[in-house]
Amino acid sequence: MKVGPVAGELDGKVAVVTGGASGIGRATAELFVEEGAKVVVADVDADRGQELAERLGPATAFRQTDVADAEQVQDLVDFAVGAFGGLHVMFNNAGIPSSFSRFLENDLSDLDRVMAVNLFGVMVGSRCAARHMAAHGGGSIINTTSIGALTGGALPLVYRVSKSAVIQFSQSIAIDLAEFEIRVNCVAPGHIPTGITNYDLGPVIERTQPLQRIGDPVDVANAVLFLAGERSAQITGIVMPVDGGTTAGPPVPKGRKRAVPEGGGGRGG
User: Rounded distance, CA 68 to CA 207, Å?
Assistant: First the structure.
C-alpha cells in the first residue's frame, strides 16, 4: 500500500503500549495518539499512567498491568478490545534493569523477576495480542530489545540475556504468525535516557556512538511508529537499532577526524 507523507498514520487503529507511563513507552503513547490511534497505556505505575491517560484525552485509557502476570496481560488485551473495538498494534515495551555485579559476584537473585518482565511479559503479550489479531485481519507487534543484545559486553548480565532472548523469540513468531498477516519486529534502543538508564551517558556516547547527539525517547517512538503503520507493510522479523550508529562501530577518534573541505560542491544525482 502506498502511503503519502501525511499525518494520521494510525487513524482508526487501536494500540496497547506496555511500560507506557514513562520513558520510551510514554513518548510512544503520545506519538500514537497524535497520529490518530486509540491507545491503552499499561503500566504498574498507576499514578503516572492515569495522569498520562487523562492528559491525552478520550483517545487514551489506562490499565494497571504487571506484564509478568499472564492473567493481567489477557485482561489488558480484553480491555483494549472492549474499550476501543479492536487491537491492531501491540508494543511490548515494559522492562526493568538488572544488577551490574560482575559474574563471579552476581548471586543472580534478580534473574526470575527480570526474565518474567523482560521476556515472559513480551511472550505473553505477543500471544494475547496475536490471538485477537489472527482472527481479525492481522496487525503489528513491536517488542523492545536493546543494543545490549546486539553487542558484546559483560554487564549487565541478566538484562542482556533477557533482551537477547526477546530477539530470538520475536524472529521465531514473525515466521509463525506471517500467515495471519501479523508482523513482528523489534526496536533496539541504545543510550537513551529513561528511568532505567542507570549509568552516565556522556562518556559512553563519546567513546562508542558515532552520532554524538544524545538520543531521546521520541527517537525510539518514531521508529515504533514506522513499524506500527503501513509504511512497514513488507517488514517483519527485523531488529531496528535506534542507537546513533553504536552497533555499526565506534566513532572516529578525535585526533583522526577530518576538517570539513572547502567548497564541497558537486553535482547531485
Answer: 35
Whether residue 119 contacts residue 172, with contact meaning beta carbons closer than 8 Å, is answered with no
| The one catalytic residue among 62, 120, 159, 169 | 159
- Measure the CA angle with vertex 48, ends 45 and 49; round to 5°: 75
199 is an active site residue: no
Evaluate whether 15 touches 9 at the Cβ level (below 8 Å): no
pLDDT digits (tens, 9 = 90+) for 29-60: 999 999 999 999 999 999 999 999 999 999 99
CATH 3.40.50.720 fits 14-256, yes or no: yes
Please state the domain extents for the chain: 14-256
pLDDT, tens digit, 9 for 90 and up, residues 181-214:
999 999 999 999 887 665 677 888 999 999 999 9
Q: Is this structure's pTM higher than 0.90?
A: yes
Output the 3-class SS for 220-239.
Answer: HHHHHHHHHCHHHCCCCCCE
Place of cell 552497533: 247
pLDDT computed for residue 256 by the predictor: 74
pLDDT reading at 1 higher than 50: no
Task: Give the residue carrying C-alpha cell 520475536.
Answer: 170
pLDDT (tens digit, 9 = 90+) per residue, 77-136? 999 999 999 999 999 999 999 999 999 999 999 999 999 999 999 999 999 999 999 999
